[in-house]
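Cross-posted from the bioinformatics board.
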Amino acid sequence: MDTVFGINPVALFGQLLVGLINGSFYALLSLGLAIIFGLLRIINFAQGALYMMGAFFAWLGLEYLGINYWWALLIVPPVVGLIGILIERFLIRPIAHEDHLYSLLLTFGVALVLQGVFNHLFGSSGKPYSIPESLQGVVNLGFMYLPIYRGWIIVISLLVCFGTWWAIEKTKLGAYLRAGTENARLLQAFGINVPLMVTLTFGFGVALAGLAGVLAAPIYSVSPDMGANILIVVFAIVVIGGMGSIGGAILTGIGMGVIEGLTKYFYPEASNTIIFMVMVVVLLIKPAGLFGKEA
Amino acid sequence: MEMLKSNKFNIVLLALALVIPLAVYPVFLMKVLCFGLFAAAFNLMLGFVGMLSFGHAAFLAMGGYVTGYLMSNAGLTPEIGILCGTFASAVLGYLFGNLSVKREGIYFAMVTLALSQLLFFFFLQAPFTEGENGLQGIPRGHLFGLIDLNHNLSMYYFVLAVFLLGFWLIYRTIHSPFGQVLKAIRENEPRAISLGYNVRQYKLMAFVISAALSGLAGSTKALVFQLESLTDAHWHMSGEVVLMTLVGGMGTIFGPLVGAAVVVGIENFFSGGELGTYIHIIMGLIFIVCVLAFRSGIVGEFNKFVKNNF
């Protein structure tokens, strides 16, 4: 294998690509968390479990109902979003006026139940989900071979992330949302149905996790604890980026994925922990996070 | 409330603790005591300062691993081994506390969770932890070089002594001027700051005490089971201690112990056999029910009942 300055470009680009893909998932999940946090001031601990459900629904659909990948991509996110809406409406809203730590504990309980149910029904082993035929194969980029499905993940998640960013920052609906983030009661006084908006926002944030789950099904093995492991990393990313801005959540997610990928190449022993270490450094230098506003 | 403070009540409890191993399997009791101390240390932060740590498993595991390693390899007596584990957790608590008290509320929970996950991967990869197998066959040794702890009954009384010491320290902390400042921070942090208290320093102090006592619980537990594994460092464990405190009653003195007994009891009932896979579902459901309808916990509701009816 050719090396340049002791660096093997094929392996390096390979890890960079893996990093970009992980980063895409981090971005989708932390974006969902940030949107929900903006309005409800809670962190949804069940986000990881809902991501896992997205992947499981895709697998179940293919296995038992013959729903292919493309239909799963369309159907599963709204279904997961609907489950999120039920959780918000019947579990979170009754305690919305209490300390937000209670909502955090509640969503943690929901995560345990969901993970436990899937573990009970399907066992803890990973389920294979094959890449749809039209996205199989590789493209030669000159300096490396890019598996088409991996390129597809990066493209679709970037589109969804920046579409969401645009909708929140540039449209009228997004303006309502931002106004609700600033002062929900005042917005309601202007005649906006804020509780409905909160529910729909929660549903949308959760649907993003469902979408990430469907995208993940063909490349990660579908298993009940896939969500919990990624969620803790996403929490660290949220601390690094701060919840100040939607764009910040996206950029930090992708950036951390890339850093993780580079670590896998240069010092693989630390690849599990690098994001947590970055978090430590950020806490030492800029406690509010890179894009954080509050002190 | 008055009833729980009276000396008579405490003496009855102590007498019960002394004779109960004649009726109940001592290893189960020791497990309850260790987790009771762990939850009480956790409750010092959640119940009395209002800080929700989601990474307390780190301190339990740190104590357990340090004690387990030293007992297996350095031939220490158990009391020195446990002191070393406790000290290691205190140092870790100082490091993690310094980083995490910079953030509040939900961010604090996320930072502690991420830091404990960092430690989990460290324990997974470090050469002295035996990875997935964990430290096995940790010797219990002879207390002060004299009393053989391999007998479960003598071990039980030793664990009871450790528990009472830890519990007493927590009780003293809560009822000291320092503890009053902690409660003031819980009730109204800006006010405490404006009164001139260095709130961050107080929070850090509470964090270190809580971490040290969690380490004490972990060290003792490692000796009881003669095993220290990654289970103790996993985020499930951090969630479990939150659940124990919530079920028993956060901010109460005896709540964490009651909660630990309930959770350990449920786990023992479900572990092994066909019911094993239900355990996380049950735990999650208890979480949801507690948060929705039962926020004061068992001891909290009991106190309310006593207050209203007597």
